Amino acid sequence: MSDQANRLRQEVMKRIQPEDKLRRTRVIAVTSGKGGVGKSNVSLNFALSLAALDKKVMIFDLDVGMANIDVLMGVTPKETLVSMLEKNLTLDAIIQKGVNGLQYISGGNGIGKVFSLDGEQLNHFFNEFNVLQGMVDYIILDTGAGLTQEGMRFLQAADDVFLVINPEPPSITDAYGVLKALHARDPKLPVKLIINRAISDQEAGRTAHNFQQASEKFLNKTIDILGWIPDDVMVRKAVMAQSPYLLEYPNAKASEAITQLVHTYLDLPSTYKLGVKGFLTKMLFHK
Ligand SMILES: Nc1ncnc2c1ncn2[C@@H]1O[C@H](COP(=O)(O)OP(=O)(O)OP(=O)(O)O)[C@@H](O)[C@H]1O
Ligand SMILES: [Mg+2]
């Protein structure tokens, strides 16, 4: 085939291929057992680090806790997922621009509403959300801590769950509780561990090893260790400055660690399931 014919064929293929064939949208849910372990910082800086590798990323703030994604970026969301439902808005109208052009959606107060939608509203939510299929490579959900029914439904529907722990025993015990509950719902759900705020390689290694062993011994479940992020004073400084540490202090130890973590993630076998539609179906209809 001549070059020109080949190009033409590629153009045509592009046009007739559904979007979802072009881009496999994966959903990553970030969670923890205990609150305050660093989920939002991990979600945001992981997202920015992926975006720096030319991946298209959308971040969802589904946490109703204190330190929200918007606060960490120093921006204020105008519309939220909840206001989309209340005002019948399109998804486009609630996508906000954060730092570095990072797209994000704020859940808003009363996000649990999405689980009791019916009729027109359910259709609207499904169709609008489904627009994301093929539009982005990764959807990152910053979920709340602990074992809420709502939280569990987001987690079990994701392609990947990132479980963030600190080396302290309460964080580990609570995270194990989350893992156990997730395992009971879906033993095949891929869970990946991130150790945040470790003070040394040894401490991180020990924590990861203990958690992995407990998981294998009691649940017969293997979990991947994605990596660890050091306890770094620059993280706190960045939080105070309302700017993500990866951007504010790109050479900080935490920034190097999150970059490394993204590479580790991209090197692991892909866990793509059924795209956005699959995620929505599971989240909305599998209790
Ligand atoms: N690697 C780190 N090094 C030092 N401090 C950190 C690190 N990660 C997080 N922190 C500190 O912990 C605080 C809480 O982090 P973050 O808001 O990301 O936690 P969270 O798990 O999302 O909390 P919540 O459960 O309230 O949503 C930050 O404001 C920061 O001061
Ligand atoms: Mg948070």
From TrEMBL:
Pfam families: ParA. One of its GO terms (biological process) is negative regulation of cell division. SUPFAM superfamilies: P-loop containing nucleoside triphosphate hydrolases. It comes from Guptibacillus hwajinpoensis. The keyword ATP-binding applies. GO terms for molecular function: ATP binding; ATP hydrolysis activity. InterPro entries: FlhG, MinD_FleN, P-loop_NTPase, ParA/MinD_ATPase, YlxH/NBP35. GO terms for cellular component: cytoplasmic side of plasma membrane; cytosol. This is MinD/ParA family protein. Keywords: ATP-binding, Nucleotide-binding. Signal peptide: none annotated. The keyword ATP-binding applies.
